[in-house]
Request: fold
Amino acid sequence: MDAVVSERALREIYLKGFEIAVREGGARAIMSTYGPVNGIFTASNYDLLTTILRKEWGFDGIVMTDWWAKGNDFAGDEGTLANVAAQVRAQNDLNMVNASAGDNSSRDNLPEALSDGRLTRAELCRSAENICRFLMGSISFLFDNGRETELDRELEASLSEEDLALRQMIVARFLGREYDFDTKLIKTERGEQTVCNVQPRQQGVYNLLMDVRAKEGYSPLAQMSMSIFLDKDLKESLTLTGADTEWRHLTIMHPSFVNSFFLKFFFGQTGLEIGRVRLDMIMTREEALARYKEQLG
Reply:
């Protein structure tokens, strides 16, 4: 819906809260909206994002679009998802969401606009500079470079037991279709849990393959239990006895169409030994969607 509003009402009423957030609150990141204001989509609105926000209010942070936002060049033009060039010209720095920016998976018009002169390399560099400035001033950047901040000290003093457990979380990043976990990092004592943030580069359907057995030296009547959670869902509960000293091979399927998920191992009793833990892609996202469409007929 096109929001038609006078400049006076826009500045004195609708923009006032944003102006306070920027001038007084020091906001460093802003999201543009889906719709147009007076015929121009906000993600590509130079007057809003450059003239007012940056030049008049002194904002030097980043502006990102809402998910799959449209852009247009002139008031009244139809907005399109592909018109990212108009967004860059307006200093909307980040276009969301792109599966692969390097491959131009969204088929936006940046290459075409650069070629025919509607967009300059300098305008792209300007947005890149905005993004780098934002990143270099972030708490995460300072933390990664070993620089403590006042916020770090406040957080350290307020950490709960759950926070401390999350701090010890394993981050598993992998690029190919398969990945082996370092099982030495999995704690198998009674009451222990190990949480992994799994970040596969490629979306798809994965099998979690796991070898487990009872350690030698336990009574045949002893019971050892283990639970496996994917995100918040319990996917497998396993109980072995002291007699189960042969490797048990588990296969758990987990469809993952997002870029990351959480994997948690919880041990109710001591005595289990973990052999190999492997994440293996059985279908890419495209293959899974094609099979789903085929099943729908």
About this structure: The chain has a mean pLDDT of 89.
